[in-house]
Structure prediction request, 288 residues.
Amino acid sequence: MIQQTDLDERRLVEALKRGDSSAYAQAVSQFSPGMLAVARYYLDTGSAEDIVQDCWVTVIDAIQKFEGRSGLKTWLHRIVANRCKNRLRSTHREIPTDFSERLDPELASRFDASGRWATPPKLRFDASAEALLENEALSNCLDKHLAHLPETQRSALILYEAHQHRSDDVCNILDVSASNLRVMLHRARQKIFLMVETFQETGQC
Amino acid sequence: MLMCRELAGIASDYIDGELTTGRNLSVKMHLMMCRPCRSFIGNLRTSTELMRRHTASHVEAAVIDRINQRISEALGARPERKD
Prediction:
């Protein structure tokens, strides 16, 4: 059975193939945040934006050959990743990553030598994520902490959580092993957990 | 037996259903007995959902505008296809 989202994507692809400018505006708005997350994993902010702009211009021609074997989002993210990898090869730059420890140092310090909680979580978050997000101060605090995450963790988080890619797609796009992706996601989530906990306890960001 | 520190290290894998059956069972047994770890898992789950909703709604308007500008220029340089 054909899903509505598949139908919407087919229509969008057909419109892009016709060079319909409003279809491009829709696609740019829908897919660019994820493309930027991919590019920023590999490159500095300025170069990442340049690469994403260049990719969109490439897409105007390349879309004619798009056959829909993967979703449009995955296809676009792979184009960006491949361009970034080529750029990295030419500059011989390494991506800084730390997969040595699953626990965030701040969280790790909350266990005693026997591995039990020395400083356990003080309270259980009493509201749903949806209700918590209604608090503007918390929302701003989230922005601040997301901005301070290492690019590698933020990109993994955005692709996996916000863009709902499957793990193997994220591994392919970011050129990372499944176990290292798990570490990146967990490290990012712990940072946000610690931030929300501090905010809930003290009201401070 | 699984200790709290170890459980905290694999908490995301548990939330995402990425653990083996045996490992998953030992996390569940630990959670039945350990209130701090139940709070930790619950809070980590809420934080994850919070981030999922927050990042999904985050749009970088200025960057999007610049990309649209580039696309308009590129599209303007070629005829619209009728097929």
Chain A has a mean pLDDT of 89. Chain A has ten helices and no strands. The two ends of chain A are 47 Å apart (CA to CA).
